[in-house]
Amino acid sequence: MRKSWSRWMGVSASVLVAASLAAGCGQQQASEAPEAAKPAVKPFEGKNITLVTANHPWNDAIKPLIPEFEAATGMKVNVQSFFEDQLTQKLTVQFTSGSATPDVFMYRPLQEGKLFYKNGWVSPLDEYPQKDASYDFADFSKSAVGSVTVDGKLAGIPIITEQEILYYRKDLLQKAGIAVPKTIDELVAAVKQLHDPKNEMYGFVARGQRSPLVTQVSSFLYSEGADFSQGDKATINTPEAIKAFTTYGTLLKDYGPPGVLNMSWPQAFGIFAQGKVAFLTDANSLYKNLTDAEKSKVADQVGFAVFPGGKAGSKPYNITSWGLAMNSKSANKDAAWEFMKWATSKEIVLKTQQKGNPGARASVWDNPEGTTGFPAELVTVIKESVKGGVDHDRPTVISVGEARDAVGEIVQRVMAGETNLQDTADKANAALQAIMDKDKSK
Protein backbone atom coordinates (compact mmCIF):
# COMPACT_ATOMS: atom_id res chain seq x y z
CA MET A 1 0.00 0.00 0.00
CA ARG A 2 2.96 2.33 0.69
CA LYS A 3 3.92 2.15 -2.99
CA SER A 4 0.41 3.01 -4.20
CA TRP A 5 0.14 6.00 -1.85
CA SER A 6 3.60 7.21 -2.85
CA ARG A 7 2.62 6.95 -6.50
CA TRP A 8 -0.61 8.93 -5.84
CA MET A 9 1.27 11.65 -4.01
CA GLY A 10 3.88 11.82 -6.76
CA VAL A 11 1.22 12.38 -9.41
CA SER A 12 -0.43 15.09 -7.32
CA ALA A 13 2.86 16.92 -6.87
CA SER A 14 3.57 16.75 -10.63
CA VAL A 15 0.17 18.28 -11.42
CA LEU A 16 0.76 21.12 -8.98
CA VAL A 17 4.18 21.94 -10.45
CA ALA A 18 2.86 21.86 -14.02
CA ALA A 19 0.00 24.19 -13.12
CA SER A 20 2.39 26.65 -11.47
CA LEU A 21 4.66 26.77 -14.54
CA ALA A 22 1.74 27.32 -16.92
CA ALA A 23 0.35 30.18 -14.84
CA GLY A 24 3.72 31.90 -14.72
CA CYS A 25 4.43 31.98 -18.48
CA GLY A 26 2.58 35.25 -19.17
CA GLN A 27 3.59 37.10 -15.98
CA GLN A 28 6.48 39.44 -15.23
CA GLN A 29 9.91 38.12 -14.33
CA ALA A 30 9.40 38.93 -10.65
CA SER A 31 6.57 36.44 -10.47
CA GLU A 32 8.42 33.72 -12.41
CA ALA A 33 10.40 32.58 -9.38
CA PRO A 34 9.41 28.99 -8.47
CA GLU A 35 6.95 28.75 -5.63
CA ALA A 36 7.87 26.81 -2.49
CA ALA A 37 6.83 23.15 -2.69
CA LYS A 38 3.38 22.63 -1.21
CA PRO A 39 2.72 19.66 1.08
CA ALA A 40 0.83 16.79 -0.56
CA VAL A 41 -2.89 16.81 0.14
CA LYS A 42 -4.06 13.90 2.30
CA PRO A 43 -7.42 12.70 0.96
CA PHE A 44 -9.08 12.06 4.34
CA GLU A 45 -7.40 14.70 6.50
CA GLY A 46 -9.32 15.16 9.74
CA LYS A 47 -11.62 12.15 9.27
CA ASN A 48 -12.15 9.74 12.16
CA ILE A 49 -13.55 6.21 11.95
CA THR A 50 -14.12 3.54 14.58
CA LEU A 51 -13.06 -0.06 13.94
CA VAL A 52 -14.40 -2.81 16.20
CA THR A 53 -12.61 -6.16 16.12
CA ALA A 54 -12.59 -9.49 17.87
CA ASN A 55 -9.67 -10.46 20.06
CA HIS A 56 -8.23 -12.44 17.20
CA PRO A 57 -4.75 -12.91 15.66
CA TRP A 58 -5.86 -10.80 12.67
CA ASN A 59 -6.39 -7.88 15.02
CA ASP A 60 -2.91 -8.41 16.46
CA ALA A 61 -1.46 -8.37 12.93
CA ILE A 62 -3.34 -5.33 11.59
CA LYS A 63 -2.99 -2.92 14.53
CA PRO A 64 0.77 -2.26 14.13
CA LEU A 65 0.18 -1.43 10.45
CA ILE A 66 -2.56 1.15 10.99
CA PRO A 67 -0.24 4.11 11.76
CA GLU A 68 1.14 3.81 8.21
CA PHE A 69 -2.39 4.04 6.82
CA GLU A 70 -3.18 7.02 9.04
CA ALA A 71 -0.04 8.84 7.93
CA ALA A 72 -0.85 8.33 4.26
CA THR A 73 -4.53 9.31 4.43
CA GLY A 74 -4.69 11.79 7.30
CA MET A 75 -7.44 9.62 8.78
CA LYS A 76 -7.61 8.54 12.42
CA VAL A 77 -8.68 4.93 13.09
CA ASN A 78 -9.95 4.27 16.60
CA VAL A 79 -9.72 0.55 17.37
CA GLN A 80 -11.83 -1.28 19.96
CA SER A 81 -11.45 -5.01 20.59
CA PHE A 82 -13.69 -7.51 22.37
CA PHE A 83 -13.93 -11.23 23.07
CA GLU A 84 -16.01 -13.08 20.49
CA ASP A 85 -19.26 -13.33 22.47
CA GLN A 86 -18.91 -9.77 23.78
CA LEU A 87 -18.37 -8.55 20.22
CA THR A 88 -21.67 -9.96 18.97
CA GLN A 89 -23.51 -8.56 21.97
CA LYS A 90 -21.96 -5.09 21.61
CA LEU A 91 -22.67 -4.88 17.88
CA THR A 92 -26.27 -6.02 18.35
CA VAL A 93 -26.93 -3.43 21.06
CA GLN A 94 -25.38 -0.58 19.07
CA PHE A 95 -27.07 -1.48 15.79
CA THR A 96 -30.45 -1.92 17.47
CA SER A 97 -30.16 1.61 18.83
CA GLY A 98 -29.31 2.98 15.38
CA SER A 99 -25.77 3.98 16.32
CA ALA A 100 -23.51 5.40 13.58
CA THR A 101 -20.52 3.67 15.21
CA PRO A 102 -18.62 1.54 14.65
CA ASP A 103 -17.99 2.46 11.04
CA VAL A 104 -16.21 -0.84 10.27
CA PHE A 105 -16.42 -4.08 12.22
CA MET A 106 -15.29 -7.69 12.24
CA TYR A 107 -18.08 -10.26 12.08
CA ARG A 108 -18.73 -13.95 11.43
CA PRO A 109 -20.58 -14.04 8.10
CA LEU A 110 -22.09 -17.50 8.46
CA GLN A 111 -23.15 -17.01 12.07
CA GLU A 112 -24.39 -13.42 12.09
CA GLY A 113 -24.23 -12.20 8.50
CA LYS A 114 -27.80 -12.93 7.47
CA LEU A 115 -29.23 -11.52 10.71
CA PHE A 116 -27.21 -8.31 10.41
CA TYR A 117 -28.07 -7.86 6.74
CA LYS A 118 -31.80 -8.60 7.07
CA ASN A 119 -32.03 -6.08 9.90
CA GLY A 120 -30.48 -3.40 7.71
CA TRP A 121 -27.38 -3.05 9.88
CA VAL A 122 -24.88 -3.76 7.10
CA SER A 123 -24.19 -1.54 4.11
CA PRO A 124 -24.08 -3.41 0.75
CA LEU A 125 -20.60 -3.02 -0.74
CA ASP A 126 -21.16 -4.12 -4.35
CA GLU A 127 -20.20 -0.79 -5.94
CA TYR A 128 -17.06 -0.14 -3.88
CA PRO A 129 -14.63 -2.83 -5.12
CA GLN A 130 -15.33 -1.78 -8.72
CA LYS A 131 -14.15 1.80 -8.19
CA ASP A 132 -10.46 0.90 -8.16
CA ALA A 133 -9.16 -1.66 -10.67
CA SER A 134 -5.94 -2.09 -8.70
CA TYR A 135 -7.93 -3.54 -5.80
CA ASP A 136 -8.51 -6.61 -8.03
CA PHE A 137 -11.61 -8.05 -6.37
CA ALA A 138 -11.45 -11.05 -8.72
CA ASP A 139 -8.36 -12.14 -6.76
CA PHE A 140 -10.59 -13.21 -3.86
CA SER A 141 -11.70 -16.84 -3.68
CA LYS A 142 -15.21 -17.22 -5.10
CA SER A 143 -16.27 -19.45 -2.21
CA ALA A 144 -14.96 -16.94 0.34
CA VAL A 145 -16.93 -14.17 -1.40
CA GLY A 146 -19.97 -16.45 -1.40
CA SER A 147 -19.79 -16.63 2.40
CA VAL A 148 -20.15 -12.83 2.68
CA THR A 149 -22.93 -12.57 0.10
CA VAL A 150 -26.54 -12.32 1.29
CA ASP A 151 -29.48 -12.32 -1.13
CA GLY A 152 -27.08 -11.63 -3.98
CA LYS A 153 -25.56 -8.58 -2.28
CA LEU A 154 -21.97 -8.20 -1.06
CA ALA A 155 -22.34 -7.72 2.70
CA GLY A 156 -18.65 -7.82 3.68
CA ILE A 157 -15.07 -8.50 2.62
CA PRO A 158 -13.31 -11.77 3.59
CA ILE A 159 -10.34 -11.51 5.96
CA ILE A 160 -10.01 -15.04 7.43
CA THR A 161 -10.79 -18.27 5.56
CA GLU A 162 -11.08 -21.90 6.62
CA GLN A 163 -11.34 -25.27 4.89
CA GLU A 164 -12.05 -28.69 6.37
CA ILE A 165 -9.12 -31.03 5.89
CA LEU A 166 -7.97 -34.47 6.98
CA TYR A 167 -5.31 -34.70 9.69
CA TYR A 168 -3.51 -38.02 10.06
CA ARG A 169 -0.59 -39.73 11.79
CA LYS A 170 2.21 -40.22 9.28
CA ASP A 171 4.02 -42.79 11.39
CA LEU A 172 0.96 -44.99 11.91
CA LEU A 173 0.08 -45.06 8.23
CA GLN A 174 3.66 -45.79 7.23
CA LYS A 175 4.01 -48.62 9.74
CA ALA A 176 0.74 -50.22 8.59
CA GLY A 177 1.48 -49.67 4.91
CA ILE A 178 -1.68 -47.59 4.44
CA ALA A 179 -1.87 -44.89 1.77
CA VAL A 180 -3.33 -41.54 2.68
CA PRO A 181 -7.10 -41.91 2.09
CA LYS A 182 -8.42 -40.09 -0.95
CA THR A 183 -12.04 -41.25 -0.62
CA ILE A 184 -14.41 -41.58 2.30
CA ASP A 185 -14.54 -45.35 1.76
CA GLU A 186 -10.73 -45.49 1.99
CA LEU A 187 -10.87 -43.39 5.16
CA VAL A 188 -13.36 -45.76 6.79
CA ALA A 189 -11.19 -48.77 5.87
CA ALA A 190 -8.04 -47.14 7.25
CA VAL A 191 -9.82 -46.09 10.45
CA LYS A 192 -10.97 -49.68 11.03
CA GLN A 193 -7.46 -51.02 10.46
CA LEU A 194 -5.76 -48.61 12.88
CA HIS A 195 -8.42 -48.70 15.61
CA ASP A 196 -6.91 -50.46 18.65
CA PRO A 197 -8.80 -49.36 21.77
CA LYS A 198 -7.12 -51.98 24.00
CA ASN A 199 -3.92 -50.01 23.55
CA GLU A 200 -5.67 -46.62 23.75
CA MET A 201 -5.38 -46.01 20.03
CA TYR A 202 -8.58 -44.83 18.36
CA GLY A 203 -9.21 -44.73 14.65
CA PHE A 204 -11.05 -41.43 14.35
CA VAL A 205 -12.03 -38.30 16.23
CA ALA A 206 -14.04 -35.20 15.35
CA ARG A 207 -16.59 -32.95 17.00
CA GLY A 208 -19.38 -34.93 18.63
CA GLN A 209 -21.40 -32.24 20.39
CA ARG A 210 -24.74 -31.59 18.71
CA SER A 211 -24.22 -27.99 17.56
CA PRO A 212 -20.41 -27.92 17.01
CA LEU A 213 -20.43 -31.10 14.88
CA VAL A 214 -22.66 -29.52 12.20
CA THR A 215 -19.90 -27.47 10.59
CA GLN A 216 -17.65 -30.52 10.30
CA VAL A 217 -20.23 -32.99 9.05
CA SER A 218 -20.99 -30.47 6.30
CA SER A 219 -18.05 -31.61 4.16
CA PHE A 220 -19.26 -35.22 4.39
CA LEU A 221 -22.67 -33.92 3.29
CA TYR A 222 -21.37 -32.00 0.25
CA SER A 223 -19.02 -34.78 -0.80
CA GLU A 224 -21.96 -37.18 -0.99
CA GLY A 225 -23.84 -34.74 -3.23
CA ALA A 226 -26.15 -33.33 -0.55
CA ASP A 227 -26.63 -29.99 1.22
CA PHE A 228 -28.63 -28.54 4.08
CA SER A 229 -31.09 -27.04 1.62
CA GLN A 230 -31.80 -26.47 -2.05
CA GLY A 231 -33.40 -23.11 -2.73
CA ASP A 232 -36.24 -22.69 -0.24
CA LYS A 233 -36.44 -26.37 0.67
CA ALA A 234 -34.67 -28.15 3.52
CA THR A 235 -32.91 -31.31 2.27
CA ILE A 236 -31.34 -33.04 5.26
CA ASN A 237 -33.53 -36.15 4.86
CA THR A 238 -32.39 -37.20 1.38
CA PRO A 239 -30.63 -40.56 0.87
CA GLU A 240 -27.33 -38.74 0.23
CA ALA A 241 -27.68 -36.67 3.40
CA ILE A 242 -28.57 -39.69 5.52
CA LYS A 243 -25.53 -41.55 4.16
CA ALA A 244 -23.26 -38.64 5.12
CA PHE A 245 -24.71 -38.36 8.63
CA THR A 246 -24.49 -42.12 9.09
CA THR A 247 -20.83 -42.25 8.02
CA TYR A 248 -19.80 -39.42 10.34
CA GLY A 249 -21.83 -40.69 13.30
CA THR A 250 -20.67 -44.29 12.86
CA LEU A 251 -17.01 -43.29 12.68
CA LEU A 252 -17.41 -41.52 16.03
CA LYS A 253 -19.57 -44.23 17.63
CA ASP A 254 -17.51 -47.26 16.60
CA TYR A 255 -14.00 -45.86 16.29
CA GLY A 256 -13.92 -42.72 18.43
CA PRO A 257 -12.44 -42.29 21.92
CA PRO A 258 -14.55 -42.44 25.08
CA GLY A 259 -16.60 -39.28 25.66
CA VAL A 260 -16.60 -38.26 21.99
CA LEU A 261 -20.31 -37.45 22.21
CA ASN A 262 -19.41 -34.41 24.30
CA MET A 263 -16.37 -33.26 22.35
CA SER A 264 -15.99 -29.99 20.49
CA TRP A 265 -12.77 -29.02 18.72
CA PRO A 266 -10.55 -28.40 21.80
CA GLN A 267 -11.19 -31.91 23.14
CA ALA A 268 -10.86 -33.56 19.72
CA PHE A 269 -7.56 -31.84 18.99
CA GLY A 270 -6.40 -32.47 22.53
CA ILE A 271 -6.72 -36.26 22.36
CA PHE A 272 -5.12 -36.34 18.90
CA ALA A 273 -2.22 -34.29 20.28
CA GLN A 274 -1.80 -36.86 23.04
CA GLY A 275 -1.00 -39.44 20.38
CA LYS A 276 -4.17 -41.50 20.83
CA VAL A 277 -5.92 -41.01 17.47
CA ALA A 278 -5.06 -41.89 13.86
CA PHE A 279 -7.40 -39.55 11.93
CA LEU A 280 -9.14 -36.25 12.57
CA THR A 281 -11.26 -34.04 10.30
CA ASP A 282 -11.62 -30.37 11.18
CA ALA A 283 -10.65 -26.83 10.17
CA ASN A 284 -7.18 -26.21 8.76
CA SER A 285 -6.92 -23.01 10.83
CA LEU A 286 -6.48 -25.07 14.01
CA TYR A 287 -3.41 -26.97 12.84
CA LYS A 288 -0.97 -25.37 15.30
CA ASN A 289 -2.70 -27.23 18.13
CA LEU A 290 -1.14 -30.38 16.64
CA THR A 291 2.19 -29.13 15.30
CA ASP A 292 3.31 -27.12 18.33
CA ALA A 293 5.70 -29.35 20.24
CA GLU A 294 4.68 -27.69 23.51
CA LYS A 295 1.07 -28.78 22.96
CA SER A 296 1.45 -32.00 20.99
CA LYS A 297 3.30 -35.26 21.62
CA VAL A 298 3.09 -36.08 17.91
CA ALA A 299 4.03 -32.67 16.50
CA ASP A 300 6.54 -34.14 14.04
CA GLN A 301 4.18 -36.89 12.81
CA VAL A 302 1.13 -34.84 11.79
CA GLY A 303 0.12 -35.11 8.14
CA PHE A 304 -2.36 -32.97 6.19
CA ALA A 305 -4.56 -34.13 3.31
CA VAL A 306 -7.41 -32.88 1.19
CA PHE A 307 -10.80 -33.92 2.55
CA PRO A 308 -11.59 -37.39 1.13
CA GLY A 309 -14.08 -37.63 -1.70
CA GLY A 310 -17.50 -39.23 -1.69
CA LYS A 311 -20.09 -39.80 -4.40
CA ALA A 312 -19.72 -36.17 -5.57
CA GLY A 313 -15.94 -36.03 -5.14
CA SER A 314 -14.03 -34.02 -2.56
CA LYS A 315 -16.15 -31.01 -1.60
CA PRO A 316 -14.94 -29.53 1.68
CA TYR A 317 -16.27 -26.25 2.94
CA ASN A 318 -14.17 -23.24 1.95
CA ILE A 319 -15.58 -20.38 3.95
CA THR A 320 -14.97 -16.91 5.27
CA SER A 321 -14.91 -17.41 9.03
CA TRP A 322 -14.30 -13.69 9.67
CA GLY A 323 -15.04 -10.70 7.49
CA LEU A 324 -15.08 -6.90 7.60
CA ALA A 325 -18.39 -5.08 7.18
CA MET A 326 -19.56 -1.47 7.08
CA ASN A 327 -22.25 -0.04 9.35
CA SER A 328 -25.18 1.11 7.21
CA LYS A 329 -25.58 4.11 9.53
CA SER A 330 -21.94 5.21 9.26
CA ALA A 331 -21.54 8.92 8.53
CA ASN A 332 -18.13 8.24 6.97
CA LYS A 333 -18.79 5.56 4.38
CA ASP A 334 -16.08 6.68 1.93
CA ALA A 335 -13.51 6.81 4.72
CA ALA A 336 -14.73 3.46 6.05
CA TRP A 337 -14.32 1.87 2.62
CA GLU A 338 -10.85 3.41 2.23
CA PHE A 339 -9.81 1.58 5.39
CA MET A 340 -11.48 -1.68 4.31
CA LYS A 341 -9.84 -1.46 0.88
CA TRP A 342 -6.43 -0.93 2.47
CA ALA A 343 -6.86 -3.67 5.11
CA THR A 344 -7.85 -6.22 2.45
CA SER A 345 -5.40 -5.11 -0.25
CA LYS A 346 -2.83 -7.53 -1.64
CA GLU A 347 0.02 -5.88 0.26
CA ILE A 348 -1.70 -5.91 3.65
CA VAL A 349 -3.18 -9.40 3.23
CA LEU A 350 0.35 -10.59 2.52
CA LYS A 351 1.53 -9.08 5.81
CA THR A 352 -1.36 -10.40 7.90
CA GLN A 353 -1.11 -13.85 6.31
CA GLN A 354 2.59 -13.99 7.13
CA LYS A 355 1.45 -13.76 10.76
CA GLY A 356 -0.60 -16.93 10.34
CA ASN A 357 -3.96 -15.45 9.27
CA PRO A 358 -5.19 -17.41 6.21
CA GLY A 359 -6.61 -14.86 3.78
CA ALA A 360 -8.82 -15.15 0.70
CA ARG A 361 -6.52 -13.75 -2.02
CA ALA A 362 -5.22 -16.29 -4.54
CA SER A 363 -2.23 -14.11 -5.42
CA VAL A 364 -1.03 -14.16 -1.82
CA TRP A 365 -1.31 -17.95 -1.61
CA ASP A 366 0.64 -18.18 -4.89
CA ASN A 367 3.35 -15.89 -3.50
CA PRO A 368 6.05 -17.87 -1.63
CA GLU A 369 6.32 -14.95 0.82
CA GLY A 370 2.64 -15.37 1.66
CA THR A 371 3.00 -18.96 2.83
CA THR A 372 6.07 -18.68 5.04
CA GLY A 373 3.99 -19.12 8.19
CA PHE A 374 2.43 -22.43 7.11
CA PRO A 375 3.79 -25.98 6.63
CA ALA A 376 4.48 -26.60 2.93
CA GLU A 377 2.27 -29.71 2.88
CA LEU A 378 -0.62 -27.72 4.37
CA VAL A 379 -0.25 -24.95 1.77
CA THR A 380 -0.68 -27.50 -1.00
CA VAL A 381 -3.77 -28.92 0.70
CA ILE A 382 -5.31 -25.47 1.21
CA LYS A 383 -4.79 -24.45 -2.41
CA GLU A 384 -6.35 -27.71 -3.61
CA SER A 385 -9.26 -27.43 -1.16
CA VAL A 386 -10.16 -23.96 -2.40
CA LYS A 387 -10.81 -25.28 -5.92
CA GLY A 388 -13.88 -27.32 -5.10
CA GLY A 389 -14.85 -25.69 -1.83
CA VAL A 390 -18.40 -24.87 -0.73
CA ASP A 391 -19.12 -21.40 0.63
CA HIS A 392 -20.99 -22.41 3.80
CA ASP A 393 -20.48 -24.91 6.62
CA ARG A 394 -23.93 -24.69 8.25
CA PRO A 395 -27.50 -23.87 7.20
CA THR A 396 -27.62 -20.30 5.89
CA VAL A 397 -30.46 -18.99 8.03
CA ILE A 398 -31.03 -16.21 10.55
CA SER A 399 -31.68 -18.58 13.46
CA VAL A 400 -28.39 -20.43 13.07
CA GLY A 401 -28.39 -21.95 16.56
CA GLU A 402 -31.79 -23.58 16.12
CA ALA A 403 -30.83 -24.91 12.72
CA ARG A 404 -27.59 -26.41 13.97
CA ASP A 405 -29.40 -28.18 16.78
CA ALA A 406 -31.88 -29.70 14.31
CA VAL A 407 -29.12 -31.05 12.07
CA GLY A 408 -26.86 -32.18 14.90
CA GLU A 409 -29.67 -34.24 16.41
CA ILE A 410 -29.53 -36.62 13.43
CA VAL A 411 -25.83 -37.40 13.93
CA GLN A 412 -26.21 -37.80 17.68
CA ARG A 413 -28.98 -40.34 17.10
CA VAL A 414 -26.56 -42.32 14.93
CA MET A 415 -24.00 -42.17 17.73
CA ALA A 416 -26.66 -43.41 20.16
CA GLY A 417 -27.34 -46.45 17.95
CA GLU A 418 -30.54 -45.24 16.23
CA THR A 419 -31.60 -47.66 13.51
CA ASN A 420 -34.59 -45.87 11.94
CA LEU A 421 -32.65 -42.80 10.84
CA GLN A 422 -35.12 -41.85 8.10
CA ASP A 423 -37.79 -41.02 10.68
CA THR A 424 -35.32 -38.91 12.67
CA ALA A 425 -34.12 -37.15 9.53
CA ASP A 426 -37.68 -36.42 8.41
CA LYS A 427 -38.47 -34.77 11.75
CA ALA A 428 -35.24 -32.77 11.67
CA ASN A 429 -35.94 -31.71 8.09
CA ALA A 430 -39.39 -30.47 9.08
CA ALA A 431 -37.82 -28.47 11.92
CA LEU A 432 -35.24 -26.93 9.57
CA GLN A 433 -37.97 -26.12 7.03
CA ALA A 434 -39.96 -24.29 9.73
CA ILE A 435 -36.86 -22.24 10.58
CA MET A 436 -36.33 -21.37 6.94
CA ASP A 437 -40.00 -20.41 6.49
CA LYS A 438 -39.81 -18.21 9.58
CA ASP A 439 -36.84 -16.39 8.01
CA LYS A 440 -38.95 -15.48 4.98
CA SER A 441 -41.46 -13.67 7.15
CA LYS A 442 -38.77 -11.44 8.71
Automatic annotation (TrEMBL):
Q: Which residues form the signal peptide?
A: 1-30
Keywords annotated in UniProt? Signal
- The name of this protein is Extracellular solute-binding protein
Q: Which organism is it from?
A: Paenibacillus validus
Q: Which Pfam families match?
A: SBP_bac_1 (PF01547)
**Gene3D superfamilies the record matches:** Periplasmic binding protein-like II (3.40.190.10)
Q: Which InterPro entries match?
A: Bact_solute-bd_prot1 (IPR050490), SBP (IPR006059)
Q: Does Transmembrane show up as a keyword for this record?
A: no
